């Protein structure tokens, strides 16, 4: 296997995971309410994601195991191991089940905008009371995962990420951004009045714990130790991260820019992404609206594939099962999450209690996963590939940010009580 020419790899799955409906909504609100002022927060989130994902990928490549499997060996004391593993299962599996409804609903929103004139779909909903697109999109996600071949899944997600990139960046170009304001927002950090929670939300939609499980396991499968030497695999992985993660950041910046042009300073309030799409038509024509709809559909569908995939990697790894995409527990996990997401989305149910629990669990899990990852990256099993001082300092900085994100998630969750 050669690594001389660059190819997209597992880092693209991470981009597909964090550019979902939640990121689209958060970035849209940031642009609409604060213009370009918070672009710097997106740049920082890209940096933090690259730091953590490089460690996760290195762990998977060197050990040949996912993060879940490494956690089993890292925490040997049963009194610590089982509470930690149960928390991971609760946050990743249960949490992704709740968020899957949002992923599918977001993709359905984009699909409805694209195919709004199809009478069959309108007749379906009026006669059954069940939304059409969540069923179709859930079936697409299940089809991609059912084949159980990593390369096939990776190629599908690369295609969706490239489609997202073209759609959102084209929308930004069509809306003619203020380049000077964008550059100032990127390199002159400021927090306007009332923007602190939005800053934390922008970082929190990018730096997510389940991407660590996704990246470690997928890197171990992409570059198996029997097929490629470790140094070559690590070089390929770092090149992959250096392209794919910043590409995700560029998509987020494009969304911020589009919302800023359409809403910032207009006196209008942005309540949802549909409103953003509608506002673009009279200003910039149908091309911008269509681009936004295509991007939203691709973002929702990519996250609808990666969320169940990450949950399956996490659960099977924690249970000590091999990284086999056709393994029964692996398939059962992602299938259950897709079914829950389709059910909640197609019936229009908002799983408030489950989402509340997921936010609490994720709020605790993110800094905990950062600590566990740093401990794992300094373990003797990595040998010469352990963290150096610079990597530990950067990891500690991201840990501090994760504590801030944790506080925000917990505060938001308890505010729902």
UniProtKB/TrEMBL annotation:
The record's InterPro entries line, in alphabetical order, gives: NRAMP_fam
Kindly give the Pfam families that the UniProt entry links to this protein.
Answer: Nramp
Give the stretches traversing the membrane.
Answer: 36-57, 78-99, 132-150, 157-175, 195-220, 241-267, 287-316, 328-349, 355-376, 397-416
Give the coiled coil ranges.
none
Q: What is this protein called?
A: Nramp family divalent metal transporter
Q: Give the subcellular location.
A: Membrane
Query: Repressor as a keyword?
Result: no
Q: Keywords on this record?
A: Membrane, Symport, Transmembrane, Transmembrane helix, Transport
- Chief location category: membrane
| Record carries keyword Transmembrane helix | yes
> Which NCBIfam families does this chain map to?
Nramp_1
The protein's topology relative to the membrane is:
Multi-pass membrane protein
